[in-house]
Design goal:
The chain has about 425 residues and is mainly beta. The chain has a domain at about 175-415: Jelly Rolls (Sandwich), CATH 2.60.120. It has five helices and 21 strands. The strands form four sheets. Strands 7, 12, 13, 14, 15, 17, 18, 20 and 21 form a nine-stranded antiparallel beta sheet that branches. The longest helix is centred in the N-terminal third of the chain and has 18 residues, at about 50-65. The radius of gyration is 21 Å and the shape is globular. Pfam families: Neprosin, Neprosin_AP.
Length: about 425
């Protein structure tokens, strides 16, 4: 739910869309500028490999044909996105052999002590600002373009673009966190309100996100996760807007899972929210603050993991069969921020987490999560107990927790990245 907590004017998202020249012909592709391993854009001479490049373009086009379904209606978003209204039974999820020919599952019972309503949601995304909407019986899907895939260099990298990064020790992985987590029990879901910002990201191979993790298994190759929140990812989306996203894996990000609807898996049920679309409005420093409410929980009847966004809006679900350990329950819940630090210039990145300010600055300046809750075996929403705090590099990004009667369990987190204490 978008939640305004001050009466000052707020700034809109900076209008910046990364412009990438992408070939519409093979000759143009062969002469395109490349990104070096260091992340700095450089022009490089490239050996002509027509057969290899033609094969790559064929793979990309085959993927686009598979993932972009026929639209009943198309909506142009102010940020440049194209939103396709796709018949529900034609969405990518139903390409999965386990789902082919099926209908979406019935809505689950909400957790007890859950106070949301099924009221019409606020305008939480840019594409809905014009008043356009997708018809009943369809789902809005952000169209994937050739530019999107070429930015990531391959179809495989584009769909996943994440690496094994949730380990408590992320030294050397490039992924850094400032999080609160609970473990040591059986968990059946989680809920929180996430403060939304537009942190600066240094280069297209880095990202900044804030999310909820539902985790089960070990931190080896059997790791299962469900993830939802907001992220800024130039590589994935081609711009610097904060976007509502989902992710899942059942083998520690190795071969299974993907972002949003970029593979068969998540079943979308709403016609009001486009996963991967830009969030609006956002928070401003010393100005108005805006939240989104996110809840993920396990349907007691069918075992699917459902996602709710905003004021009681059911977005859809991850079918139980996708997972191994999460078919039963989660053994860890995590809330907070994550960035990627490529050290592209030889020192720590200046990619921001949260608002780009440290936790000590507090309300209106630092980003926060509030009303942290988990779901127990009997489908009850409960406040967190036995919280653990982790900041991989506290001189770069830190975290501070608190509790009161209005926000329940909450924390401030984030930071600027590179500074005098974070070289």
């Amino acid at each position: 739910m978008a939640y305004s907590v001050s009466h000052n004017s707020f700034s809109t998202i900076p209008l910046f869309v990364g412009f990438l020249v992408v070939a519409s012909s093979l000759a143009h592709v062969l002469s395109s500028p490349l990104m070096s391993d260091s992340g700095n854009r450089q022009m490089k001479n490239r050996t002509f490999k027509p057969a290899k490049d033609i094969q790559k373009l064929r793979r990309i086009n085959a993927y686009l044909k598979k993932i972009n379904k026929p639209a009943m209606k198309t909506i142009q978003s102010p940020d440049g996105d194209i939103i396709d209204c796709v018949l529900s039974h034609l969405q990518p999820a139903f390409d999965h052999p386990e789902l082919r020919g099926q209908k979406p599952s019935d809505p689950p019972a909400r957790p007890k002590r859950h106070n949301s309503t099924d009221a019409n949601p606020e305008n939480l995304q840019l594409w809905t600002g014009s008043g356009e909407s997708c018809p009943e019986g369809t789902v809005p899907i952000r169209r994937t373009t050739e530019k999107d895939v070429l930015r990531a260099s391959s179809v495989r990298r584009y769909r996943r673009t994440r690496r094994r990064h949730i380990r408590r020790d992320s030294t050397g992985s490039g992924h850094e966190h400032a999080v609160v987590f609970v473990n040591g029990d059986q968990y059946y879901g989680a809920k929180a309100s996430l403060n939304v910002w537009a942190p600066r990201v240094t280069n297209e191979y880095e990202f900044s996100l804030s999310q909820i993790w539902i985790i089960s298994g070990s931190f080896g190759n059997d790791l299962n996760t469900i993830e939802a929140g907001w992220q800024v990812s130039p590589e994935l989306y081609g711009d610097i807007y904060p976007r509502f996203f989902t992710y899942w894996t059942t083998d520690a990000y190795r071969a299974t899972g993907c972002y949003n609807l970029l593979c068969s898996g998540f079943v979308q049920t709403t016609n009001k929210i486009a996963i991967g679309a830009a969030i609006s409005p956002i928070s401003s420093y010393n100005g108005r603050q805006f939240d989104i409410d996110i809840m993920v929980w396990k349907d007691p009847k069918h075992g699917h993991w459902w996602l709710e966004f905003g004021s009681g809006l059911l977005v859809g679900y991850w079918p139980a069969f996708l997972f191994s350990h999460l078919r039963s329950h989660a053994n860890m819940i995590q809330f907070g921020g994550e960035i990627v630090n490529t050290r592209s210039s030889g020192f720590h990145t200046s990619t921001q987490m949260g608002s780009g300010h440290f936790a000590e600055e507090g309300f209106g300046k630092a980003a926060y999560f509030r009303n942290l809750q988990t779901v127990d075996w009997d489908n009850n929403l409960l406040p967190l107990t036995n919280l653990h705090l982790l900041a991989d590099h506290s001189d770069c990004y830190d975290i501070r927790q608190g509790r009161n009667n209005v926000w329940g369990n909450y924390f401030y987190y984030g930071g600027p990245g590179r500074n005098v204490r974070c070289p």
